[in-house]
Amino acid sequence: MRCIDCKKEASLEAYKKAIDDQIVLRCECTGLVKPDVVFFGESLPKEFAEAIDLVGEADLVIIMGTSLVVFPFAMLSQMIDEKTPLVLINNTDSRPGKKANSLWLDGNLDERVKELADELKWEL
């Protein structure tokens, strides 16, 4: 959770309490606090635009939690070389053309990421 004005982090506990109390959570600066995600219709962070070209240079691309229908995320899969492995973790199979270089892992995102990390012996 983060203030939309000063960007200060807020605790999940405070956010849950605000929901339970049916109040709008505000920061000390009086700004609104919201989950630190990009909602539909919001602008993507500048880091997205700055890093988008790196997708074409990747050795492996993992795309999670998007159907790849709405732009600009829809173009991510188009930027991947056909020899670069693509892992899509999502509850619907939205692999572009279901290419040979792509793998779709369906189901709960958190569970699938943990399974993948365990299998690869990555620490989370």
Radius of gyration: 18 Å
Largest sheet: 3 strands, parallel
Portion in helices: 10-25%
CATH superfamily of the largest domain: TPP-binding domain
The global form is globular
Return the structural class.
alpha/beta
For the record, the count of structural domains works out to 2
What is the CATH domain class of the largest domain? Alpha Beta
What is the CATH fold-level name of the largest domain?
A: Rossmann fold
The end-to-end span amounts to 20 Å
Mean pLDDT: 87
Q: Return the CATH architecture of the largest domain.
A: 3-Layer(aba) Sandwich
Proportion of strand residues? 5-15%
**Poorly predicted parts:** none
Order of helices and strands: EHEHEEEH
* DSSP strand count: 5
Question: What strand order characterises the main sheet?
Answer: 3-4-5
Count of discrete alpha- or pi-helical segments spanning 4 or more residues: 3
Notable features of this structure?
alpha/beta, Rossmann fold, 2 domains, two-stranded antiparallel ribbon, 3 helices, 22% helix, globular
List the helices and strands and how they pair.
Elements (H helix, E strand, L loop, with lengths): L1 E2 L8 H9 L12 E2 L11 H6 L9 E4 L21 E4 L12 E4 L3 H12 L4
Parallel strand pairs: 3-4, 4-5
Antiparallel strand pairs: 1-2
